Give the backbone structure.
Amino acid sequence: MTTPQDIIRRDVLSMTGYPVPDATGFVKLDAMENPYTLPAPLAARLGERLAGVALNRYPAPRPATLIEKIKHVMHVPAACDVLLGNGSDEIISMISVACATPGAKVLAPVPGFVMYQMSAKFAQLEFVGVPLKDDLTLDIEAMLAALAEHEPAVVYLAYPNNPTGTLFRDADIERIIAAANRSLIVIDEAYQPFAQQSWLPRADAFDNVVVMRTVSKLGLAGIRLGYLVGAPAWLAEFDKVRPPYNVNVLTQAAADFLLDHVDVLDAQAAELRAERTKLAHAVGALPGATVFPSAGNFLLVRVPDAAATFETLLTARVLIKNVSKMHPLLANCVRLTVGSAEENEQLLAALRLALH
Ligand SMILES: Cc1ncc(COP(=O)(O)O)c(C=O)c1O
């Protein structure tokens, strides 16, 4: 008899999968989704468009029209190419697979986005986490020392960082780029709609930098579309390990249609930025709560007892993320996604019960 234990890698056997709790019936503020749906007339037109999609055909592997539209709408520098992924998660995975030479390392500040580490592990790359400072800003000296010591193949810099919300200083990133002459720097701009600052216009200015984006936080998490912007020489290599039909026809058609209406999504992001400011003030005024500055659509908050706060919110049917066990720097921290005005009111009401 053959069992998984005979066949599957030992490190995989000991892993647990990425946890996604069932949010049915909850105010869902745990995954940095945009709370707004499309306006009904736009959704109806999208429906008509999707009805015309040929589901019997495989998707175009490199859909030229969609790629051109992304380049145009997102102001991609002319010298850069665009590589599409089934979410930026898949792009991270492609980068890991393509860079997985024996002994190669991936480096990122920690606490950071967990998929950098998980994806490195899946591809049997070593992950080096460089702790942020106590105030959750980048420890640039530690980053430079780690770069020199480990010479990682890949460095991830989330701009802004998840789960802290920190927007690392451009001057620090420039120092890392200059020092990392044997590494690829991936600047992950998943939260760019809320940061409104970007390295994309400079994606053609360095030979060791690529910029990663996603439409997820813009309001289209369900369609799973991420993209990597960078020099054709880099992207051509990642493209070789891309599953052949990775972005499905419905996603391609939906993105192609909605990029013509990106003003609708931009307006939603603007509302969320305003809600973020209001929520940060209100939460910061609660007893025992410390709100860290955030350039994302979420707030990292330190409370006296994160587990108790999480449980009280759960009882009030509000789902947030307790990140306190992710890293020692996040002791007693919870992460709150910024929702609609109404959701934020429900969140605040529940937080008032938890923190009094
Ligand atoms: C920093 C960062 N990068 C990438 C992603 C993943 O984005 P996608 O939905 O495109 O896979 C996330 C999701 O939370 C994130 O926080």
User: Anything to note?
Assistant: The CA atoms of residues 194 and 296 lie 5 Å apart. The mean pLDDT is 97. The first strand starts at residue 27 and ends at 28. Residues 262-284 form the longest helix (23 residues).
